[in-house]
């Protein structure tokens, strides 16, 4: 491998920026307040959900609304294996199992449904969330007679570090996939599925694998998120919001770049945390308006706007000769 | 008559009473999705807003809920029509292909869902509201059904049949059917396609509005009630075949009967049974029972 590839400016600048951000985040609990640690945990959770959604839906173009199903499976894995009466398995193992369980669900669902195209896939994945929610609700009411479950208390710093670790692994995975043959296969499926199949790509296999991989991260995040919630019932774990919020955050941030969904999720999660307790209805109202406006006027998201603004600012807004570059 | 046959009759009639509303809701969504190509996730929110408006008109001004059909319906129609002329028209202009339009319009209607639901929460609060209208029993050969349910069934069937005749016989109906088949060719044949699609979206909203007025007579109202009706409508239009208006109408009654049968055994499982049926149908026969 040619070492100069990694020392060139193209890799050095984003690499150093990522490293600085990572160090700042990792040392956060040392100098930040308790509130800022909890806030950052929430933001990281939304970033993980959003990036894992983009990981599948971005390149393939399949609109998945199953995020909340995968997230909820992770939450329930935690509720079953980490009850407040005493953990069955160590925390890290449970987080891993939460991810694996979600991945397996996605594997099964993907194998069944990824032949459905367009709108049918979106409807089906959303139906999946409701089906799991209703069945679980029925199970808890009539079979186990438990309305909700309590999860073991875990320190805020521990939750934060595990969330951060999932985030780092996710970003590395997404980055590596983008640069691999697998990523190329994904892109070609999104561009033209039939053509991709004719080029010898095992279309179904690639789609199902990436679907399961993205579900793994959502499930792992759900498993650790459960220890922050401490009380869980089916409506909390499988809230449909967790299916739609990642989509909105990704669209708002822009899906063309790796950092677009991260920025979109960070901004929205921050607004959610600060506004939701004070003005819950107005917050959700604004949320809806922003969603409509973002779809109408920000086709490439926030990160698509910035280069446009920078270009206009550099040219003083008057020169148009390089408008297409 | 033996006990078991009476029970079966009870369940079937109960299913038909429920199915009338389902049929109406599904016909509305079928128009919006089958012709205007917008899978309106906010469909149930139009129902909710209409139901709450009826509640206020009846309890504050004392206007008969059946008269409200003629007041609330047209207002919701205008809102739907205007929404398509502005929002969805812009979206379709900006979408590079039909798939992109389908995806972005779903997300836009999800935004609408948030907007409408939270406006209702600000206006009416999160508590359940209900009023009593025609709430007395009617004896139908031994089984007793409340009068308002029978009135609802009568009006839903009436509205459904009237609308079907409108589609089948009128000039606008003919244009709508041609646009459902092929919007581009319909446009070439002199149909004002933008106006027509907006009309269809408006008619879909009108159906939701009328259904909302009728629903308010029999169930307690809450700003979060819309979602379940949206899903029932989606299930019915898949059941009946996407874009088939008679399919939606009949599918509504089929789902109503299935719902009553499941409710007879375990009421808490009826929604789960709907979704299970729906997912099975998507996998086995995505064209729906009446799909071509």
Describe the structure in your own words.
The complex is a heterodimer of chains A (about 325) and B (about 290). Chain A has helices spanning about 5, 10-25, 30, 35-60, 65-80, 90-115, 120-140, 155-180, 180-190, 195-200, 205-230, 235, 240-255, 260-275, 280-295, 300-315; strands at about 150, 230. Chain A is an all-alpha fold. In chain A, helix 4 packs parallel to helix 8, helix 4 packs antiparallel against helix 11 (about 205-230) and helix 13 crosses helix 14. The two termini of chain A are about 30 Å apart. The model of chain A is unreliable at about 315-325 (pLDDT under 50). Chain B has a single domain (about 5-285), classed as Orthogonal Bundle (ABC transporter involved in vitamin B12 uptake, BtuC), CATH 1.10.3470. Chain B has eleven helices and two strands, in the order H-H-H-H-E-E-H-H-H-H-H-H-H. Chain B has helices spanning about 5-35, 45-60, 65-95, 100-125, 145-170, 170-180, 185-190, 195-215, 225-240, 245-265, 270-285; strands at about 135-140, 145. In chain B, strand 1 and strand 2 form a beta hairpin. In chain B, helix 1 (about 5-35) runs antiparallel to helix 8, helix 1 packs antiparallel against helix 10 and helix 3 runs antiparallel to helix 8 (about 195-215). The model of chain B has no long low-confidence stretch (mean pLDDT about 85). The interface of A and B includes residues 63 and 295 of A.
Average pLDDT over all residues of chain A: 84
SSE order of chain A, one letter for each helix or strand = HHHHHHHEHHHHEHHHHH
Spatial strand sequence of the major β-sheet of chain B = 1-2
Number of domains of chain A: 2
User: What proportion of the residues of chain B is helical, as a percent range?
Assistant: over 70%
Evaluate the radius of gyration of chain B: 19 Å
* CATH architecture annotation name of chain B: Orthogonal Bundle
Tell me the major beta sheet of chain A.
2 strands, antiparallel
Structural class of chain B: mainly alpha
